[in-house]
Amino acid sequence: MDSLVPATTPSELATELDVDAKRIRAWLREQGFRSRAELGQQWQLSQAQAAEVRQEFGTSTSPISPSFDPQLLTVGEILHAYSSLLAELRRRGLVRTHNAPIGDLAEYACAAYYEEELAANSEKSYDLLAADGRRVQVKVRNVRPDTHPSATFSSIRSTNFDICVFILASAITNSIEAAYEWTPEEILAQGRFSSHTNSTVIRINKVRAGVAGKDITEGFNIAWQAMLELVR
Predict the structure, then answer these.
(1) Do 126 and 36 fall within a single domain?
(2) What is the pLDDT of residue 68?
(3) Does 208 lie in the same domain as 132?
């Protein structure tokens, strides 16, 4: 230890840096900062070691700290973090369920784009009412470069709406690749009906190619980016 300098513990650094102490201890173990004889004992960090922790876990200008590594977490910790993140998104009013958030986020951005509030969760045939009174259904897919063109949006079992907005959100750039308004007639003409599920599905390649509907990609992307920048 550094002469005459009190030792520092991971818990003290965790409080100082607003970081989970488990992450700090996991990182310290990877660095080999303790001998076998010290295993099981309380961590006592020298001034130099504490400085390295501060450098590794200090505040970053990146929206996600580069020191965050899910591989250092147990499965339980990952599940807890996932649940906590969804809970925070719900607290901020961005998602309405504890499901994967992309659908709720798309509905939130649509509500901003159409300048209207979301419909009640009990309403099954549409997701929101636009300012002009149109009933709007929202369908979204989070796509990556390896997403197959024949992939589909979730099934449509009712056309009791005025327009359906099909959205392709890029999982890489956090932007909107394509967004189109389709009428029920266009859905029936371009979709594939499944008698087994009594529903119609639309492939993402048809939306990407703009084979039907009104292109609202540019305007909707503005609403999407504004949502992504929300802090509270």
Answers:
(1) no
(2) 60
(3) yes
Classify residue 124 by burial, with Cβ atoms within 10 Å: 0-12, 13-18, 19+. exposed
Torsional sign, CA 213, 217, 221, 222: negative
Lowest mean pLDDT of 58-67, 102-111, 121-130, name the range. 58-67
Averaged pLDDT for residues 180-206: 95
The structural domain count of the chain equals 2
Is the pLDDT reported for residue 62 higher than 50? Answer: no
100: region left, alpha or beta (phi > 0 left; psi from -120 to 50 alpha): beta
Residues 108, 182, single domain; the answer is yes
- Quote the domain boundaries for residue 58: 10-68
- Enter the pTM of the model: 0.62
pLDDT at residue 56 is higher than 90: no
For residues 47 and 125, state if they share a domain: no
- Are residues 131 and 32 located together in one domain of the fold? no
In a domain, residue 77? The reply is no
Residues 6+ away with beta carbon under 8 Å from 9: 42, 43, 44, 45
Give the amino acid at 149: P
Tell me how far apart the alpha carbons of residues 187 and 215 are, in angstroms, rounded to a whole number. 15
Which band of pLDDT confidence, cut at 50, 70 and 90, is reported for residue 5?
A: very low
